[in-house]
Structures are given as C-alpha cells and as structure tokens.
C-alpha cells in the first residue's frame, strides 16, 4: 500500500470514526423554562427505558416567594418525590421503569403571583451505551487508523464528551442562577426605589408643614402687637 492509498484509508477511517462518535453521543438531556400561572399546576412527561437513570433539576427563577410544589410520579402511579414550597432541587431516579414519568410543578397555594420555572432532565440509557459499543467495534482494525489504537481513541473521545456535557450542564445551571439573581435584584431595586420616594415625600411634607406652622406663628404675633 503506497502513501496515497494509506492516506485515503486513514481519511475514510477518520470519517467513519467521526460519524460513529456523533451517533454514539446523541444528546439525551433537555431543558425547559416556562411560566407557571397563579393557582395552577403544570405537568410534563418524560419517557424512559428499563434499568436506566434520569436526573431532574429545577429552579424557580422569578415570582413572589420563589417557591413551588414539586413531585415526580412513576409510570405505575407511585409518588417518588414530593416537595412543598421549595425554590430548587435535584433528584435522581435509578433504576428507571419503562414508561412515562410525570414531573409536576404546583403553584396552587399562590393566588396572585405567577412563577417562572427552569428545569433540566438528564437521561442515561444502558441500551444506548451497548449500541455505541457495537458501532465502535465495527469501525475496523487499528491498522486502518495509522497504528492508533481504537480503544484509546474511543476512551479519549468519551472523556472529552463527558466533560463537555458536564460543562454545558453547569453553564445552563449558572445561567438559571444568574436569571434568578437578576430578578431578585430588580425586585429589590424596585422596592428600595419605591420606599425611598415615599420617605422623600414624607420628609418634604413634614418640612413644608413646619415652615407653614412657623410662618403662621409669626403672623399671629404681629397681629397681636399691632
């Protein structure tokens, strides 16, 4: 095999490796931000496979009180998690059952204030891992990749992928925290500005009242002297 053929084979191997990695590392997590009206309840459904795992993280990022009721119900109708008046939480269900898990956010206790809620669902399926191993196994012999070991490349790419996914998840959570802090800051700024204006008006009213009273006092003395 001459140099040109070897280069062609190596390029084809790299393309196959890239395509296999894309299929193996298909995203299995999702995130969502929604507005929960006052005195209402919203439920979402997440499909899972047998013996997998699902991680659910939520945060209330806007609204008076910054709290909601949270629950997770299994496909069999069993309440796995029930939390009341919480602003955030992280829950892991492992192993999962085959079916749809119910994820509910309840704002029934609040009659006037709506809430903005962010939550993220991270799925891990053993079936996906097995399929990825089969795809990696069918890429070819190590000699087709210019004497690189396929297992080393696989391990390195999986490590990079896990770190990138973890970094992305942390950035998403940090963005949710930032939005929550910004809403709290804007709410507190409005309150401080409002009460500052009220105090200023009260002080001006007291000052004008004092000036008026003193002037009336001197006017009364002039009239008595005359």
TrEMBL record:
The chain positions of domain GOLD read: 41-123
The answer, when asked if Transmembrane is one of the entry's keywords, is: yes
- Which superkingdom is the protein from? Eukaryota
Q: Which SMART domains match?
A: EMP24_GP25L (SM01190)
**Keyword annotations of the record:** Endoplasmic reticulum, Membrane, Signal, Transmembrane, Transmembrane helix
Q: How does it sit in the membrane?
A: Single-pass type I membrane protein
Signal peptide feature range:
1-24
Q: Which PANTHER family match?
A: TRANSMEMBRANE EMP24 DOMAIN-CONTAINING PROTEIN
Q: What is this protein called?
A: GOLD domain-containing protein
What organism, scientifically named, is this protein from?
A: Cyprinus carpio carpio
Q: What is the lineage of its organism?
A: Eukaryota, Metazoa, Chordata, Craniata, Vertebrata
